[in-house]
């Protein structure tokens, strides 16, 4: 039985795929084979020696010690695109909230007092303060054209907006899905100067931390709107507050509350709702459960943030999964030990990703514990598993 430790509530739509005949799922395990989580912060917990995989039911992995797990030979899976529609809908909704001043108008209205006649009079007198604008003809800048960014760009174009995009690492898969009318930009600064709305869909790394700061805000159009449904820290809160106070920005809509921004009258802040739909939670759980299951049972890898994607049909009697540092002569040493054990290699696949190499090896015969120990003893081997 594989033991799966869940650190957050994971949708049953995903967990049910694991099957009760091979998997035991619980909130507490001493020696789990895999961990499934959503937003739980793993950085301060002790990594069990039994751990073989981590699955994040979502896209971002900032809450997971990926580098540490990589050094231990543990792949980290995520679910890119599974929550894309949920985030897309919220971003489109956020643009409407900002352009029509809906939240401010709602707050004004619900604080009206007096008779119905008095309220009606105050409504007519006050509504001019909340005159908004329409989206067609406005320009949206999308920073990050992955699964989410592409859906947002296409949807905004469908609403009659001009759309600019920036992503120096855009994949071919994303490019095929992007509408041809979405205009590429060579850099962030060029995009900022041309847009009425800016939305971010990038991870929080050194290159994206405080991407929007005081200097870049000066480049933006007067009255622009910033939308941040990616990660807190991409937008510098203090700089945005200053820009709102001076009228440089019309509004800021953010999914990551802080004391500095949560009560500002021109800020609409939400409690991290980007992927909070039943459908998105189901989709993420299904995707990551299938990926972890395929890895545990067959050694195949799909959508790992630290390991290469690879899959190999089963052949032979036994399958080995070997994780090693991406250095010369590893395959030779692995093959030599198998040959010494009298194990004929039926099929073998090797892929690398940065400093990590991953190998699937199918052999004729049974692999002994002694052979596994010899493989693990090779300098540079991080993990060995018989499947």
Largest β-sheet summary: 7 strands, parallel
**What is the distance, rounded to the nearest whole angstrom, between the alpha carbons of the first and last residues?**
13 Å
Which runs of at least 5 residues are low in confidence (pLDDT < 50)? none
β-strand amount: 15-25%
Write the CATH fold name of the largest domain: Rossmann fold
Give me the CATH superfamily of the largest domain: NAD(P)-binding Rossmann-like Domain
As a whole number of angstroms, the C-alpha radius of gyration is 26 Å
Assign an overall shape: elongated
Level-2 CATH architecture of the largest domain: 3-Layer(aba) Sandwich
CATH class of the largest domain: Alpha Beta
What level of helicity do the residues show?
Answer: 25-40%
Given helix and strand content, the structural type is alpha/beta
